[in-house]
Write a structure and sequence with these properties.
two-stranded parallel sheet, two-stranded antiparallel ribbon, alpha+beta, 155 residues
Length: 155
């Protein structure tokens, strides 16, 4: 199963760009564990660096938090993640409790105790959310299931 007990048929399908996957999608957990274990077994130092890719297609109808216009830029840099509306825009929650609420929604409530490892499989039994914290903790547990890594980068 890919993505922590999500089978291929239930997994989100990445958008297509000129008929090909825009980013290639996320590798299956077993592939991640196997790659880490293989590199480690050959004496290689392993650095794991999970990061977000913004799968926003051309011609979307999402409101741009930076301008208020309809249609966010195609496949933007993840550094564009912001409060909505963005700082400097009318009605921005920047530096308010509402901004903290938006950030909390992005980060999520998943906790280390919501995860278990069974062999090389990561099992999640936490809040029903697809959050940044859940993603990072899931990958940290995959690294542990593979025998560990030399560095784990977040950012």
């Amino acid at each position: 199963m890919a993505g922590g007990s999500v089978g291929r048929s239930a997994a989100h399908v990445v958008s297509l760009d000129n008929g090909a996957p825009a980013y290639g999608g996320t590798p299956a957990d077993v592939t991640v564990v196997s790659a880490i274990a293989d590199l480690s077994s050959r004496g290689k130092k392993v650095t794991f660096y999970p990061f977000l890719l913004m799968d926003i297609e051309s011609g979307n109808a999402l409101q741009d938090p930076y301008s208020g216009a309809t249609g966010q830029p195609q496949y933007p840099w993840r550094g564009r993640i912001t409060v909505d509306p963005a700082p400097g825009q009318t009605g921005s929650p920047d530096k308010t409790a509402a901004a903290a609420t938006q950030l909390g929604g992005f980060l999520g409530q998943a906790a280390v105790s919501d995860f278990a490892i069974n062999g090389t499989t990561v099992i999640y039994n936490g809040p029903n959310e697809w959050s940044y914290r859940r993603m990072v903790l899931h990958y940290a547990h995959l690294c542990k299931a593979a025998g560990g890594v030399d560095a784990f980068l977040i950012g």
